[in-house]
Structure formats: C-alpha cells, structure tokens
Specification:
alpha/beta, binds pyridoxal-5'-phosphate
C-alpha cells in the first residue's frame, strides 16, 4: 500500500496488523511492541492526520525540523522521540523538547544531554545506539565499547538508560535480518546480566519489523509504511 492509494487510518491499521501477526508468531502480546511513527520529512499536517487515528508517539531525526512541527502541534498530547544523529550543537534542543532519545553513541553527547535537561522535566528516556553491522560510516557504538558507555550513561542524573537502538545494514534476507537483531538482543541481555535494568529494544523499521519483533523488539520505528515514500533524502 502506498500513500497515494490509502488513507492514514488504513496505513496505520496495516502496520498494526503486521505488528500483531509478528507478535503472535513470537508468542508475545502485541501490546509489548510500541509503534513509533517516524515522521521525518513529513509536515505537521501529516502528523496531525496520523494523530487523529490514535497514534501518539512520533520520531524525528532533525532537531530544527522537529521543533517547527512540535510548535505547530502543541495542542496535541504527542510524545516525541529523537532518533537521528546527534550533533553537539543540537543537544540543548533535544534535551529541552523530547521525551526520548534513541541515538546516544558517545559519552560526551550523553553528558551534555544530562546537563542540559531542564530540572522540571522527567529524566530524558535514553537508548544507546549500537552498531552491529560494523560499517565504519554508520552511527552507533561498537559492541566492544558498549558496556563502558552503558555504565557511564546510567550514572548521569538527568538521563534514564532504557535500552538499545540499532539500525542494521538493510537486507531483504529475513535470516540475515534476524541474525543482526539477535546480536542486539544478546548485547541487551549481557548488559542486564551485568546489573543494568534495561527494558527497551528499539529496532525494526518498515522493511524488517517482523524480524525485529521475533527477536524481542519493544519499539519499532516505522516511517515509509505509515507516511509513504520520502521524496527528499533523510
Ligand atoms: C527513517 C528512519 C526510520 C524509518 O525508516 P522506514 O524504513 O521509513 O520505516 C527508522 N529509524 C531511523 C533511525 C530512521 O532514521
């Protein structure tokens, strides 16, 4: 189904159905998998239409773009997640305007987010992005460096470390998709065995959410299947 021949309600229903089927196949309840609607490049009107269908959690990749949409949608009770690469000069905007951040991959950025989180807000709900595909150009901490980063992030007062996020290299091969997500889950299990109390695995997108749910994803981040193809690069 594409944006051109379907309504937001139909696309949301189709994605929720995919989530329910994958959860059932995994022996999990669909309520254990939260849908994060990734609205990057789509305008406030598109988000408002999706919110009118009952969607509440939205993910954005660019701080400036997100702040403009948040201002236009301030009348709605939406929950905003920052999921893009974090530039040093954007940490204050993220700390002040988001409930969640999924893409922390170095301590210096985490420290700035904690320092800049306003005292009146709850701690910033945080996932560390881990790079399980070994691509040098991609974001995410290397698995070998993950335990030290998780220990340090979990000590920051205004962040609450919830789990891991990953964007494995795209592949149409379901077995390869599952292997990458399984690796993320193993890293998550290792951290919990070391004393962390993580409850969030942010993994799976439009093309691979089933594989992610089979490997215990608790948040799937879905853009294209909800909003249609993006017409500009993001
Ligand atoms: C764009 C994006 C998504 C959504 O990808 P789709 O393939 O459009 O579902 C998910 N996560 C991140 C980090 C993204 O940048």
């Amino acid at each position: 189904m594409t944006a051109a021949d379907s309504t937001p309600a139909e696309r949301l229903h189709a994605v929720r159905t995919r989530i329910a089927h994958a959860a059932a196949a995994a022996g999990r309840t669909p309520a254990a998998v939260q849908l994060l609607a990734v609205s990057k490049t789509f305008d406030a009107a598109a988000i408002r239409a999706m919110a009118a269908c009952g969607q509440r959690e939205f993910g954005e990749n660019y701080a400036q773009e997100a702040l403009e949409k948040q201002a236009a949608l301030h009348d709605l009770p939406l929950v905003w997640h920052f999921i893009g690469p974090i530039q040093r000069n954007k940490t204050r905007a993220i700390a002040e305007h988001f409930s969640w951040v999924h893409s922390v991959d170095r301590l210096q950025i985490a420290e700035r987010l904690s320092d800049q989180r306003p005292a009146g807000l709850p701690p910033l709900q945080t996932c560390i992005e881990v790079n399980v595909s070994g691509e040098a150009s991609k974001g995410g901490v290397a698995p070998i460096e993950l335990p030290a980063l998780a220990d340090a992030v979990s000590k920051l007062p205004q962040l609450r470390l919830r789990g891991l996020m990953a964007i494995p290299a795209p592949t149409a091969d379901a077995a390869a998709q599952r292997a990458a997500f399984r690796r993320v889950r193993e890293l998550f299990d290792d951290l919990n065995a070391r004393g962390h109390a993580l409850d969030t695995l942010s993994m799976g997108m439009s093309g691979d959410l089933e594989a992610a749910i089979l490997e215990s994803a608790t948040i799937v981040r879905v853009g294209t299947a909800l909003f249609g193809e993006r017409t500009r690069y993001a």
